[in-house]
Amino acid sequence: GSLPDVFGRLRKLESFSASSNRLTGLLPASLVNSASLLRIDLHNNSLDGPIRINCSAMAQVTSLDLASNNFQGPVPASLSSCQSLRGLDLARNKLGGVVPFEFRNLHALESLSLGNTSINNISTALEILQHCKNLTILVLSLNFYQEEMPSNVNLQFTSLKALIIPFCHLRGSLPIWLSSSKMLQLLDLSWNSLGGSLPSWIGKFEYLFYLDLSNNSFSGEIPESLTGLENLVLRTALLKESSEHFSLVKSKEQGRPRLVYDNICDFPPTVDLSHNKFTGPIWPSFGNLKNLHVLNLEENNLSGSIPDSISGMTSLEVLDLSCNNLSGEIPYSLVHLSFLSVFNVSYNRLYGDTPSGGQFMTFPESSFDGNQALCPRLLAPCQRKQIPPLVSPGKKMKIVDGNFGIGAATGFLLTVFFCFKSGWVLPKGRVCRY
Questions:
Q1: Burial level of 65, CB count in 10 A (0-12/13-18/19+)?
Q2: Which are the contacts of 78, defined by CB distance < 8 A and separation ≥ 6?
Q3: What sections of the protein cross the membrane (predicted)?
């Protein structure tokens, strides 16, 4: 049903919430002219029409959540007159256009979400919003399709703590203006088309604990400075920032269930660099990140061995190193990661025994697929091939006992049989992009 036009009689009403109620129709005139209302939450309904808020009458409104409706028209410039507005969420509506120039006057604004509203011109949007000096949370996902990430060195977001701009297919590189956002805790630029190497300053943020640059085209080595992120080493600097004005939504892929967080600090400490073109090693100093919960380096071109020091990441819950060119053995010390619930090293060049014990007893065999010299847990411990010593040309070679040859052949055939039965020799179902 629709909202009744009765708010003129509710002269002391300060907060109105009617989210997720299948409401339809326009915003009642008495609602958008209420002098007493401070907070309005109507997200996840089917309200439509233009957004017309009379900020002259609603001078005290601090929070406005109209996300996930069917509102149409441009982002209303008139909202800039709501000088007390601290939280504004218009995400997932049919708005379009650009961020109004007048938004630069929203000096009290702390949280802004315009995700999935079909707005364009990211350069102008950021130039305007940098004047909102109290802005701490900015969500602009699913907009600006295939535009260029602004590289203007003069952009300044000194108070910003969360910047969320995924699913935009933005081109360019990681912008240097981000390096001046010293308060940054959460950065999500996933699912874009950003490339080039990561600058060393990415590891200099004192408060950063959530970094998602997955599904881009970044290349070169992972900066070793990333392994020194202070908030993932010590976990003493986290600012408990509440996004009380609206929930933060995280979706790993379009069409997948969304994760909703009410606070920045609810996000799991994460470094996600998956689905890029990184080369080089996994730095042993990653083991310093004792407070990291999720490390995802899936589908890159990383090489070398898995450092034994990874076992120092004592809070780790997810470790995905699949679809790389890693070699060597899986360090047995990883069995001591008692919180590890997801582990994947499939489709590398690993060999030797698969560790057993601890959380490794819970991981499916698919976590180890595609490593043809890695011995699955279903088989007996691997009999590693020893490199025979060189025989001096001056010495006579000994004839191998015939019984030994028969036994070796029988053992080989049995091993091949069990490998084919287990699907280890011919892994199925996973294709990696390189």
A1: buried
A2: 52, 53, 55
A3: 404-426
Q: Are the C-beta atoms of 110 and 135 separated by less than 8 Å?
A: yes
159: containing domain? 7-375
For the chain, which ranges sit under pLDDT 50? Answer: 240, 242-243, 379-380, 383-431, 433-434
Q: Look at residue 116 and give its three-state secondary structure.
A: coil
In a domain, 420, yes or no: no
Phi then psi dihedrals of residue 317, to 5 deg: -110, -30
- In a domain, residue 383? The reply is no
Beta strands in 20-86 (DSSP E): 24-25, 39-41, 46-49, 63-65, 70-71
328 φ, ψ to 5°?
Answer: 90, -170
Q: What is the CATH number of the domain that holds 368?
A: 3.80.10.10
Total domains in the fold of the chain: 1
Q: List, in order, residues 6 or more apart from 337 with CB less than 8 Å away.
A: 311, 313, 314, 316, 319, 358, 359
Assigned domain for 433 exists: no
Residue 399 lies in a domain: no
Residues 6+ apart with CB under 8 A from 7: 13, 16, 28, 30, 31, 33, 34, 37
Residues 211-223: tens digit of each pLDDT: 999 999 999 999 9
Exposed (0-12), middle (13-18) or buried (19+): which is 210, by Cβ within 10 Å?
buried
